[in-house]
Design brief:
The structure is a single chain. The chain folds into 2 domains: 29-54 and 125-331, 2-enoyl-CoA Hydratase, Chain A, domain 1 (Alpha-Beta Complex), CATH 3.90.226.10; 60-120, Helix Hairpins. The N and C termini lie far apart (58 Å). It is 40% helix and 19% strand. By secondary structure, the chain is of the alpha/beta class. The strands form 2 sheets. The chain has a 6-stranded mixed β-sheet with strand order 2-3-4-7-8-11, with helices on both faces. Strands 1, 5, 6, 9 and 10 form a 5-stranded antiparallel β-sheet that branches. Residues 59-121 form the J domain.
Length: 332
């Protein structure tokens, strides 16, 4: 009642709105875990949706100074020229521009990535390459609704005989993303209808099963390494825990971030301002790791910790494969 009285005493409507929204946001952000739950404006909700879907506002054609109808040869020529110019600039800004130039070329030089970007503005979520003829490397930056399609496409690209027999899945610095897609993304690694992971809320556990089966282009890999670090977070931590539990591969790196919450946007029935829509971004579940403990605050521990000076010796106990050892060292 005192709070309501104080708000009503503010005569200026703009100041009253600012006070009420700031107070609501502070109250939400102080819920545990601190800073995860927030009050969202309509713009923030749209920004969140675009982020989850990996939609970008960047014009990568402008980045490379080319037009949409550019030929592959002209695109490569523009990329080489831009790269040569930026490599001379060793400032932080120059390095950032070089990284954006590389990303632009990665998107526009791949026919499928270019098509997706042109039609919906969605960026790819993974990079890939053959480190050696026998070792295939996939770097997964985040999860979006297009990630499973990308996985299918990039693994089919090298699914031929002779082809790679070892796979490195790099989840380092993966910020997570669309956790709703994990039952589809994990199925290709562990099979259909498998109890993959659990959510936890107020003493209750909720099981999630995979909804698709093995991916034929993944079956070939008998030696699998999953790289993680202290910046692997959210749904990427869930994936790491599942791959660890099902012995899909060996986790290598450092303990993950420990960001084990699931958030969702909830509508507000009684709006603060009828002229502007607000919603609540709220933590509603915790995720659990392979041993049943919460990921939150604990993270997922690798089987081989690369801070150990003897990690390479431990690695060689699991893999008698010098080519794979050297490939992992080249990307660490």
């Amino acid at each position: 009642q005192l709070l309501e009285k104080n708000i009503n005493e503010i005569k200026d409507e703009a100041k009253k709105k600012e006070f009420a929204t700031t107070l609501a946001d502070i109250a939400l952000s102080n819920l545990q875990p601190f800073g995860r739950s927030r009050l969202y404006s309509q713009k923030q909700e749209v920004d969140l949706k675009n982020n989850v879907e990996n939609r970008t506002g960047t014009d990568y054609y402008r980045t490379l100074d080319v037009t949409k109808d550019v030929s592959p040869d002209k695109l490569k020529e523009a990329f080489d020229q831009k790269t040569a110019e930026l490599q001379k600039d060793q400032s932080e800004e120059g390095k950032q521009k070089l990284a954006e130039t590389n990303k632009a070329y990665q998107i526009l030089s791949d026919e499928a990535n270019k098509k997706t970007y042109d039609t919906s503005g969605v960026e790819p979520t993974m990079d890939n390459r053959l480190i050696t003829p026998n070792v295939f490397y996939i770097k997964l930056d985040k999860f979006s609704p297009t990630t499973i399609e990308e996985l299918l496409r990039v693994t089919q690209k090298v699914d031929k005989d002779p082809g790679p027999s070892a796979l490195i899945i790099d989840l380092r610095n993966n910020v997570g993303g669309a956790i709703d897609g994990l039952p589809y993304f994990l199925g290709p690694f562990i099979g259909n209808d498998q109890y993959a992971y659990q959510f936890y809320q107020q003493g209750n556990k909720e099981d999630f099963k995979t909804k698709v089966g093995w991916l034929p282009s993944l079956v070939r890999y008998k030696n699998v390494v999953i790289l993680v670090n202290e910046n692997t977070q959210s749904s990427a931590e869930v994936m790491a825990a599942v791959l660890k539990k099902f012995n899909v591969g060996i986790l290598v790196g450092t303990t993950t971030k420990g960001w084990g919450t699931v958030e969702r946007v909830f509508e507000i029935k009684n709006q603060i301002d009828p002229a502007e829509k607000y919603s609540v971004f709220l933590v509603h579940h915790l995720t659990l790791r392979d041993d049943g403990q919460p990921i939150e605050g604990k993270g997922v521990e690798p089987l081989i910790n690369t801070t150990d000076p003897h990690w390479e010796k431990q690695f060689n106990i699991y893999f008698h494969y010098p080519e794979l050892t050297n490939a992992v060292k080249s990307v660490l």
